[in-house]
Structures are given as C-alpha cells and as structure tokens.
Amino acid sequence: MKKLAFILCAGAAAFAFLHASAATLPLFVTEEDAFESARAHGHVQGIAISDDAVYCGLIDAVVKFDLATGKLLGHVPAPSHTGDVCWHDGRLYSSVAVNAPANQDSPDKHGIVQVFDKDLKLLREKKFPMIFDGITALDGILYLGEGVVFGDPPHRGCKVVRVKESTLELIDVVEIDPGISMHHGIQAMATDGRHLFFSFYPAKGFPGIAVYTKDLKFVKTLPQVFSTGFDLLPSRFGEPGSSPVFGVMRAFARKDVNGVKVPGHSCRLECWAWNGSEMRNVTPPQAADLVRRPSRWLNLFNGRDLDGWTPKIRGYKAGENPGNTFRVLDGLLCCRYDDPLYSNGFNERYGHLFYNRPFSNYVLRATYRMPLPQVKGGAGWANYNNGIMLHGQTPESMPVDQPFPVSIEVQLLARAHKGQNRSTANLCTPGTNVERNGKLYTPHGLNSSSATYDPSTWVTVEVEVRGGEKIIHRIDGKTVLEYDRPQYDPSDGTAKKLIEAAGGDLLLRGGTISIQSESAPTDYKSILVRPL
Asked: In this structure, is the dihedral angle defined by the CA atoms of residues 333, 338, 343 and 346, taken in order, positive or negative?
C-alpha cells in the first residue's frame, strides 16, 4: 500500500484554492498523507461527490473530504475490499467484495452493500451472494457491477445487479455485452440522471466506457477509461444549461505526467463534460501546473534511529548525546532521563535535537505525548513542558553552555495536575520577537487558545510557516495562535552576533527545526514537513 497524494480539480482536498473562472471549475490541492492520517491505506477504487463533500472509496476504507476547504472530515474502515461508492438522496452507498480476489474458490465469497449518512455513520448493510465493484443509483434503483476475481483473462460480457434503493432487496441480475474485451467486471459506475456510465479495465485496443439507458439498453461506447472513479459534479460547477460535468479520478503510480515525474502514487480529479454523444476534457489548465508541483510530506523521523539529526545538549559539543537523552524506543522518537547521568538531577542540561536541513516556507506536523513524570531537578515551569524550535540557528553555532537556540519555539504543554487549565502550542521567543496586529510584541511568551490535554494523550500540532511573513499554530486542525514577522531581538546578546552575521537584517526567513529536552520525557510518533 502506498501513501496517496491527491491533486483534485473540482473535487475535495485541501489547502490551495484557485479559480479557473468564477462560474466554472475550482481547483483544490490536498496533502500527501491525508489517508495515512486517517489510518486508511490503499489505492482509489471509486468516488462519490455530494453538494459539499467528496467521498473516496479505498481498498480498505471510505474517506470524506470537505468540498469547499478540502479538510479531511473522517473515515470508516471497510469490512473487506471496497469496490466503489455513490451518493444519492442524502445517503452514501458503498459496494464491497468479501473473500475475493484472495481466494477464488471460497464458499464465503460474497458482496455487501453498505449505507451511510453524510457523516459516515453506518445506517444499514446487506449481504449478497455475489461480489461487487461499481455502484451507482438512478430512480430508486442501485446498479452494481458484479465483480470477477483478480487475474481473470480478457473476456466479453459482464453482469449488472439491480437492487431496490429503499429496501436493498435484490431485483435481478442482467447480463450485458457492450462489445468490450475487459479484465474483471464493471469497475466504476456513474449517472447523469438519464444514462448509466459503466467503466472497465479494457483489453488493449478497446474502449473503456459503455453507456446504457436505465433499463439497460445499450447506447454506445466511449474511448475514455474512468475505472478509478467518477461522479457527477454539483450543478454549480458549470454554466446554467450547459453540459453536465463529471469529476474523474486519475491515479498515477511512479510515471511521467505531462513529462513530469510524479513521485510515489498520486491522484488528481479531472473535469469531463458530457454533451450527450461524447466526453470532453474541460479540466482547467492550472491542473497540470499543480501536478508539476505535487504536495509532498517529508518524514523527518525514519522510525529506526537518529539518522539526519544532530543533538546539542548544554555543557556538551554539538553531536554528543550524553545519557542517550535522545533515542528511539518502539518506533517513537523520545527524550528520556533514566541514564545514570541524570541520577543526581537534571542540572540544567537543556537539550535540542536538530534536523540537518533548514526550512523556510513549510507546514510542520508532529504528534506527541508526555508519558512520564519530570526528572528530578527540573525547573517548575518545565514540568510537562517541551517544545519544537523553528527558524533556529545551527547547533554548531551554539556555544557549549548556551541553553536554547535563538529561534521561535512552539511550546508543547500538558496538564501537570488535576483541574489545571494549560494550553499547548504556545509561543516562546528565545532571542527573538514577533509582531502582533502590526505592532512589535516583545514579551517572550504568548499563550494559545487550545484546550488542555493530559500528558498521556497523543496530540497533533501543526505549524504553518510562511518564511518571514506569518506563522500559524494549529492543534488537531484548529487554529489556536498566529503572529507575523519573526525576527531577532537586538537586545539579546546571542542574537546580536547572529544579526551581525546577517548584515544587520533582523527578519527571520528560515532556519533549523529542533525538538527540546527540558526535563519532561516526551515521545514523538511522527514529525512531518511539507514544503510550500
């Protein structure tokens, strides 16, 4: 299974929103690890588009995105292999193939139709004696493509299963032959409200779509292949009275797209208009530009060791890691104080673990917890207190006894005692200042508006860093703090040397990323960076 990077046109996904024209087709960009965040892996099997959301059916889950903002709204695991999804009359329908294709002769091989509300709450499901791939709904009837086990040779003909939408009662199974030599069955289905569109994995030289009436009378074939999912876009995506427009999912796996190498397994949603006789690609030209600049998350922590990182602990030279303070435990990046070095207390051995590459414009996302009590000798303010330092100096530029790098700190905190209210993702400014509301802010601390979290709770912090312009803190997707123009504090002795080295320029436009050790044991599940 590969992570999916989505580039969606007139579909769901986040974080860059452009307009091809005010009346037609918007563009969206989502983040690469959207499905990893949802713990749902697998390639796209089909899509469904409601008025305000896009649902993606994956092999082992269904995932929902907000259509306007691209925010990942939720996911549900699939009981087995998801075939396709469709949206109709306020309900999401999912087709599932169980015990296929893994075991072609399994007596328990069957299909399931699941019905969800708009928030992915399962309302009902029903088992059928055949496996399913494609699904769509028209005039109270669900149309499903009966699946064929993986690895079948090219063949003619396939079966359409019709089911009452209201009761999920089986109506009939109809054999059709669109004149296409295909692998498997009908992979994806869609409708424009009048016709049914069935897409296949065609054999070489054959068209990929067959058009039928709702009573399964053959109309024509089309040359396109939409087998990774397509659905009708809301009517607002197009001029009134114009041709209906379908959103068509495209998947690319380590291949060239318009002459550009697309890394990993990436996808985008194209826009295709149906005029009653042919499909025409109306995808805005900006979509190609977005493919050329795929949004990629870089995982700074490899889950095995400290490769790519440099420790700097007060009293020691850069590169030394006394007491094995920073270490990897069970796949987590941790700071710990159980080594004999700390048997006599913390003794102000403030430490930082620096990633060996600077960044300027990016989004950082880290998931952390503070699972153990503070080591003895730590400062009172440092109890269940740690941080991520941004726009920092290099570890090599720090004198041996310097406690903190000149940087912008995203302060991470947890509840230290019962009943305490203590926000996290606060701001600390060692050797620096920021601006707020157009004015210089010189106090070296600023609380966020976040909730309070217990030490053992995994919390996801996200920081959007726009060079020397703006920094935004988010917790679990919600903005909790923002400020502008990070800059050196000219009154700070250490910062003065860095200002001189910068030719007198105060503005911080980039720098190192580091995590702290301030006497509170801390675990990081992941630390990701997405360059902007």
From this structure: positive
Q: What is the pLDDT of residues 297-307, one digit of tens each?
A: 788 998 889 99
Cα-based distances in Å from 358 to 17, 309, 317, 425? 27, 12, 20, 21
Q: Give the total residue count for the chain.
A: 532
H helices of 396-514, in order, are 493-501
Architecture of the domain whose range is 78-227: 7 Propeller (2.130)
Name residue, tokens 């005692």: 417
Model's pTM, two decimal places? 0.54
Residue with tokens 């050790």: 517
Query: 258 and 276 in contact (C-beta within 8 Å)?
Result: no
Determine the number of helices (DSSP H) and then strands (DSSP E) in the chain.
3, 41
Report how far residue 40's alpha carbon sits from residue 65's, in angstroms, rounded to the nearest whole number. Answer: 13
347-380 pLDDT tens trace:
999 999 999 989 999 999 999 999 999 999 999 9
Helix (H) or strand (E) holding 477: none
Cα-Cα-Cα-Cα dihedral of 489, 490, 491, 497, to 10°?
A: 100
Residue extent(s) of CATH 2.60.120.560 domains in the chain: 299-531
CATH class of 299-531: mainly beta
Quickly tell me which residue has 């044991």 as its tokens.
521
* Nearest of 431, 412, 401, 418 to residue 511 by alpha carbon: 431
**CB burial string 42-74: b at 16+ within 10 A, e below:** bbbbbbbbbeebbbbbbbbbbbbbbbeebbbbe
